[in-house]
Structures are given as structure tokens and as C-alpha cells.
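Dear colleague,

Thank you for sharing your sequence with our group. We've completed the structure prediction you requested, and as agreed, I am returning the results in plain text so they can be pasted directly into your records. Please verify that the sequence below matches your submission; if there's any discrepancy, let me know and we will rerun it promptly.
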Amino acid sequence: MPKFLPSFSALIFFLFCTTGYAQEILKRTITLTSSSYTLDSALQTAKSQGFAIAYSSSKLPNARCDFKHHQLLFEDFLKTLKTQTGIQYTVNGSIVAISYEKPTVELQTIRGTVRDLESGESLIGAAVYEPGTLNGVITNNYGYFSLSLPTGVHVVRVSFIGYEDIQDTIDLNKGHIRNFMLAQKVNELNEITISALEPDFNVSSLIPGINTLNLSTEGQIPYFLGEVDVLQGATLLPGIKTLGEDANGLNIRGGSTDQNLILLDEATVYNPNHLYGLISVFNPEAVNNVEIMKGFIPPSYGGRASSVISVHQKEGDDQNYHFTGGIGLVSARFIAEGPIKKKQSSFILSGRQSIFDLSLDNNTSTTFQDLNAKINLKYNKKNTFYFSGYFGNDRNTNTFETVRNWGNRNFSLRWNHLFGRRVFANFSAILSEYNYKITQPREAASFIGKSRIIDYTAKSDWGYVINPQHELKFGGSTIFHRLKPGDRIPFDEQTSSSNPLFLDSEHGVESAVYLSHEATLGKKVSALYGFRVSSLHYLGAGTVYQYNPERPRSNESITDTLHFRSLEIMKSYYGWEPRASVSYLLSQQASVKASYTKSRQYLHLISSTITPAPTDIWKLSDFHISPTTSHHYSLGVYQNFKENKWETYLDGYYKRLVNMVQYKDGADLLFNPNPETELLTGLGRAYGLEFFLKKNEGRFTGWLSYTLSRSEIKVDGEFDEETINNGRYFPSNYDKKHDVSVVGIYKFLPRLSGSFSFKYNSGRPFTLPLGKYIYEGNLIPHFGNRNQSRLPDYHRLDLSVKWQGKQFKADGTPKRFEDYWTLVVYNAYGRNNVYSYFFKEDEQSGVTTIEPYTIFDSIIPAITYNFKF
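Please find the predicted C-alpha cells below.
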């Protein structure tokens, strides 16, 4: 007998027995007590009746199974599970092994835009999502979205705050382009709404410390002289401060005013204020949306160390012509908008002009004007073009015939293009300019002074939607900076004693590339992370002075002079800027968010005054001044209540800054050819805790914000002349420990509403002189350590009432002409808030006294009238 025959016989016997056991288990009967089970509960039921089943619950789909009979063969039970859930099973003797391979799902992408039904205006931040799933996106800054879903029929909902939700059934087998038009909700009190784009945005947003202002001037909280103002409204939010009335710029989370990147349709605005800080340059009727990013800055933005304020202008109604205007004690405004070609192109043109000579004293007068224009063309479904421009100017004169003019110029051309179904791209060419001119004709040294900064920018931003859970954003930009620090020429060459002075121009190329990934990691975790690589090439022509390293930097310590040709690289800087933000959803009503942002700033505002002035100059990082670097950490808890009617958050932050530019005591920076001899660099730190509580719905709405914070600077140079306060940390000019804002809006009647705002903050630091001395007949104060004294605490109450004109005709149809009146009482109880101190010497006794200086020391009422037709 062959040797292999016993082994072969044993194998046949084993297979026969195994097959017999398999047939026996499959023919057994299983009893079910319900007609519907989850997959896991169905398998558990089988195991409880003695069936040996091997599987891993974590690897099975979350699916349900329906059964027609309560008793059936185990084989039919397994076939039903396989058909309805996609599992696979194998029988090995008396054991059934369950396995599952996730099927490959073919995704289709729907893309389009979300717009206002009446005007065709893009709705920035609208939500497009599939209810009951994690599939959803937010429209970008152009109202565009791209949403990938499995092939088949889906229900899609679109929503935006202040608009009626719409729901649509979409068959992705038949089309992939869908544009949505949303209608505004009626009979609502329209206000500046400092809240979520969506009711749960406070919780669901991935970026911490972001505020979106949806600006509607049909109603308003109290503003100075009734002028609705973007930046003034922002100061009522946590972490955003100013030095007081008549103070240019914002101080955000302990940063200086030049550390904010302020954009108008992507163009940089270098001076965002009129009237020395009382009113911003943004005409409210021309603004569509405002984003303030103070916690986490996405990698697509750069060049500033503290925050980004992005202002988007309206595009203009593409279906009907409208005229909007208003007049108050400060200015008159007029806006025209309408279609160039209906539903394809539109325009908006707005102007604002001060109507009185405005001044804070009897010796000066100030006027201003703004002009905004924007045209957009929807060339086809894949291409849209935008052209926008801004022109603004301030003029100040005094009794000595000194005239000061300053203003911004901005132009931008943008092209949106869709590459396929998932790729969106924007290409931009931008010009930004700020200039200043002073004419002083009556002094013996009469002169004309000029300074200017102008940027030429080319940039490209791309978005690639991989699927609803993953999106890549990438791009790059190049800015060519041209700075003219100052020219001074005689007003009259024959009579003026001043000599001509022309400071060297500065040139630089600032470039950056970035990449970011936004990911939804399961049901609770989402993340946005990426990096930015930036550089600056400081270019000639120019002269660089080298100084003796063993002596303080001054004109007397110059040891050598280097000369560079036109466009020759004088100095280069490179930097890596990693950034990440993570959100963990504790529940549908609560989340925890953490972020880290590293930023590099190559452009600095050079000022020796407490608050920036129009005469201050901008300076590039150069041979002697290094870029400012910021490391910003943020951690917060966000919670909504009562179906998002209430929202709140508690957010802590810590910011560390390197190479902060400071000035020496008594620095002379105006028309200085060697500013590095008057400047110092040091370290900065800012840390704080922000609390925000807001009521979103009801007849009474409003919010409470509180910030507990510190902002400090340390300058510890090698020499005593280059050290401040003995090298110890000292408070920055904008350090205010406590800052509280309370805002309330109440709708008394359908056409009558009222509001109030209360502001309180700790007094800011200032430097008090310790004594005085006489030098060459002049009284010279002697100052001690910097910023060791404080002004009195600041507080102010403002009130406002708004009366809406009739909105409907007698037959119930809406009126085409709409109007309303606003009455504002600024500083309602006449608080004398001290802005600074000045020192006055009695001519007879020689005693010097400290006198407080206040901007407003009385109640200031104002009335405005606004209309639209």
C-alpha cells in the first residue's frame, strides 16, 4: 500500500467531519424577539442561544437589520445580515467567523455659491450641509462652496444668520453645480451682530478667538456722534482695546497698533482712522462682512504679530438699482448700487464727506472724505472678476496756517477661477498706499514735509476639497515695498531758513508661501494645521552705517559707511511660521479649543508718542532692526445654552514677542536720517483671560465682555543708554489690567428700539517726571522709570434710540422707500475721563502743577437720518 494513503484518508475524513459540523450549525433554528436589530445586538442574540460566533465589534458597520420572521434557520439569519449590512461570514466546523471590509464609496462634488435673494450679494460664511451627518462646509470669502458626497440622492440644507433656511434634494447623478439664494428674515431688529455666522458657530468653529461682525446700519448700538463704526464696535469685544478717545488704532491681546494686519478687499490699510482715531475709514454702508482673528491666525495670513482684521466690501445688487444715504452731525453719506448686466455684473459706489469743520479745540479744524468703488463680473460659471478701490483723505489746519493732509489709496483686481469640481483659486493684484504731507508756511524755518509708503502685491490662494472631512489650502504672495521716510523742502526758498533734507528711500521684497490642512477627525475632533515660510530682502540703493560695538549706537560712534547699488540686496531674513488649532467637541453645546501661532513681522511703525500719529513713519527691518517674532498660545472653553440662544466662552492666552521696537528717552525720530540711533529692541509678553457672554434672541439682546490681562516690555541693552528701567519688565503704553463692556439692545415696539453700552477699564500707564531743570533758558522735565504711574480708571455710558419709518403701505405691500432716525447720547453722565496730563508752571511763583487733559468732559448728543430706496 502506498505510504501517502493513510495521510490522505485522514485528510478526507477531517474535511467530511468539518463539513458535517458546518451543515449542522447552519440548519439550526434561531429565535428572534424583535423584527429590527442593530448588527451588534443581532450577533449578541445569536451568541446567547449557543451559536459560536467570532468577530470584532469595533470593525463592524453601525447598521440595522430587519427580519420578517421570528424563527428562521441560522443560515438564513446570516444571509440576511450579509445582504443588509455587507458583512462576510465563513463557517469552520462549529464556529462562524464574521468579517467586514468597508466598501469603496464613489464621491461626487457639488459646487456653487450662496447669495442674497434680493441683491445677489455673496453670503460669506453660510453653512451648506447634509442634515444628520458630518458632511458640511462653510462658504469662503467669495460666497463659494464645494461639498463632496457619495453618489446618489441627498438632502442639503443651507443656512445663514438673519436669513431663512432652505432645503433641497439633490441627485448627484444628474448635476454638480447648484447656486442657492437665501431670503432675509422679516420683522427682525437688524443690528451690528457680533455673534456666530451660525447659531452654534461659537462652539463648532475650529478657530478660537475669532469674531465676525455682520454689519447692518438699519439699527445700531450707540456710536460717537451717531456714526456707525466698525472699529469702535470691535472695542466692545474681549481682548480689543484702545488708549481712549482720540487714539489711533487698536491694541489686540497686548499688541501694538502696527501689529494688526488690516485688509480692505485684501489691500492693506495703513491708517484706519479719521479725526485722529474717533472714526474709522470704513464706510459702513459699503461693508459686507468683517472678520477679526485675534486668537489663531491661519497660515494664509502673515506679516503682522498680533491679529488680522479683514473687511470685505459689498459687491452691489445685481438685479435692481438702490440708493442709500444718511446725514448726521459728522458726515453725509450716499451709496448707489445696481446691475451693469442683470445677474451677471454689478457695481457699488459710495462716498462720505464731513459736513462741518471738526475739531477738539478752538485752534484747529479737520475735514475728511471717503470714496469706495467696486465692480464685479460673473464671466461664466467658472470665472468671476472683481475690481475695487478706496480713496480717503484727512485735512487738518490750525490758526498758524499749518496744513496737514494724510490718507490711504487702495486698488485691487481679483480673479476667481474654478478648476474642476473641487479646486477653487483666487489671483490678486493689489496696490496699497499711505501718504502724509505737512505745510508750515508761517515759521521762520517754513517748510513742506512729505512721507509715503506704497506696496505692490501679487498673490494667489488655492483651495482643494478632498472630501467633506479634509481640505487643503495653499498659495503664495510677493509684496514690493517702497517707503519714503521723509522729505523736507523749504516752503519759500528765498525767505525760509530751513535746509532741504531728503532721506534715503527704502525698498524691500516680502514673500511667503503657505500650506494648511483642515481635517475633521471623527465626530468630536477637528484640526487646522500648517505652516508659512516668509522672507524679506532689504534692497538698495542705500547707505548703511556701522557702529563701534563697544559704544552705544549714535552718530559719534559711526566707524564705517557701506554703500549699495539700486536693487542690491542689503540684508535678507527668512522665517518658518508653524501654526495649529485643535477643537474637541465635548457635546453639541460645548467644545474646547487650543491653538499656537508663530508670526514674523518685517514692517514697523516708528513712533515716540503714546498713540500713533499720522506723522509717524513705517520702517522695514534692515541691517540694524530685526523682524519682530510672535509666539501666541491660546486655550479656551466654549459653551452655548438653550438651543444656542445664549453663548459664552472663557479663553486664556499667552504671547511672547522678540525684537519689539522701542525708542530711547527723548528720541528725535522726525526727519532723522539714522533712526537706528534712537531705536531699541526688546522682549514683550502679554497674557490674559477673556470672558464673553451673549444673548442672541428675544426682545432684549446684548452681551457682556471682560478681559483680565497684562502687557509688558523688557529692554536690556549692553549699555545704560540702551536700557529701559534697568532692564526690568515694565507696562506697555496700552497695558490695562481690567476691561469691561456691557451692551444691551431692547425692542420696545416693531419700529422703536433702544440700546446702551457701558465701558470700564483700568487706567493706562504713563511716565511721571520726578523734577525739572533749566537748560539754555528752557524748562526741561526730568523723568524717572518709564510707565510707573497710571491714569485714573476710565468709564463711560452711551445711549441710543432708533425710530424706524413705516415699512408697509396701507394695502400691506412693502414700501420701496425706507428710512429711520437715530438719537445718540455719548458720555451720558458727562464723565471727565483723563486722557493724559500736562505740566503748567505759574509765571509768578514758578510752581509747576499737573493738569489733567480730557478729550470730552460733557454729554454729547447727536442725531442721524438714514434712508434707502
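Summary note from our side: The first strand starts at residue 29 and ends at 31.

Kind regards,
the structure core
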